[in-house]
Amino acid sequence: MAAAKDRTDIAVPLQRRNFFLNVINGALSMVAMRVADADTVLPLLVLKLAGAEWAIGLVQAIQGFGRVATQVFVARLMDAVSRKMPVYIWGSVGRVLALCVSAAALLLSHGRNPTIVLVVFLGGYFVWMLLNGVTELAWMDVTARSVPTTRRGSLMTGRKFIGLILAMLIAAPLVNYYLGPASPREFPANYGMLLIVNILFFGLAWVAFAVIREPAPHAANRTLTLRHHFARGLRVFRRDTMYRDLVWMRLLMGLTQAFPAFFIAFGKLSLNLPDQWAALFLSIKLVSEMISSIAFGRISDKLGNRAVIVTTAFVALGTFSMAAAAAWLNTRGTADSALPIVLLGGAFCGYGLLQSGRETGEFNYLLDIAPAAKRPSYIGFGNAFLLPLSLLPLIVGWVAPKTGYLPLFGFAALVSLIAGLVSIRLREPRDTLLNGNGEQ
Domain residues for 297? Predict the structure, then answer.
């Protein structure tokens, strides 16, 4: 029988009030994220401010490095914190202030050097991502103590489905309005207005989660030193086969994560599409996320999260194959100029499926296998392996003008194929933790 201190929260009682507030938190956050979408809106913003693809890579690098680096070094401290909600609340206050700095940089940009505007915007964005890493640890821990594994798929479905409906009604029209020719504000203040809406909805989302009643905690008895933290992480990686296989899978999928942000750059620079196409591609992505959230949620609840991860890996293969085909047709100068655009739209549709599947499968799988008292360090150390990948978007942004997009999207498709083959090796945690043999 597993020691009590090492038990997971795979079968905790469902706390309905927390479940409901968590869904509201996710739905409002979804609207906020899509108003300033990291794969369509923000890439266009920094591309226009910097005039080069490396800026897109920089935004993606900040997004990955800021969140992951914080978790790697803060997780050991979070293990010994009995109440995680105060960390979430104060972290959220800091996130609002950081986003306000970024919004102010855009709204007060008239007559200022675009480079200065870009630096201040990215500074606020970087602080936001650092704090995001901390609050995400608290959110995951409280969620794991409130919702059993057989309902976490439904939780993710509720968060995403309701949020994506709201995003279709609110985010997509606002993006189309402010980035279109009828926008009341000039560039980049039009993007600043989108960021104001982003802040409003994020603030409401964070308040919704902050009023959750935190369940009884499972805190570690002591705070590990940084050296012992990494030593334990390596020991877990060697001994826990499910954890190790998940880390390898996340590494492969992480390699592909640098490329979707360049879909919109390909559309603008290679296909000469105007800015308001971002709203159309965002809508396509939102619809695919909305539909797939239901499917992946049901798969997670009924079949387990391994099935979600395997399916998602092969969805990634289809997504990047369509993007590569669009780039290939564009290089050939095909007479049917609409076909690359259609394929690019298909890639955005696939990316919506991919994003929904990864958020549901990998998140729930990790919560299934992480011991309750060590959950933050399990999450943080797992992300340590992903930290080098945060530099990959910078490399992609530097390489894209030299090679074009066909080799980049083709590479992502190849890695996705390998990830699909590796994902088949994963085991379903419920088979051992809920099999009645005393493991849980």
Answer: 4-433
Total-model pTM: 0.69
pLDDT 10s digits, 141-190: 888 778 777 777 778 788 888 888 888 888 888 988 888 788 888 888 89
Token pair listed for 224: 């590990």
Domains in the chain: how many in total? 1
Q: Does 193 map to a domain? A: yes
CATH number at residue 233: 1.20.1250.20
On the 0-12 / 13-18 / 19+ scale of CB atoms within 10 A, 385 is: middle
Q: What percent of the chain has pLDDT over 70?
A: 85
Rounded Cα distance between 308 and 55, Å, is: 33
Q: Tell me the H-state helices in 170-217.
A: 171-179, 189-210
pLDDT, position 79: 64
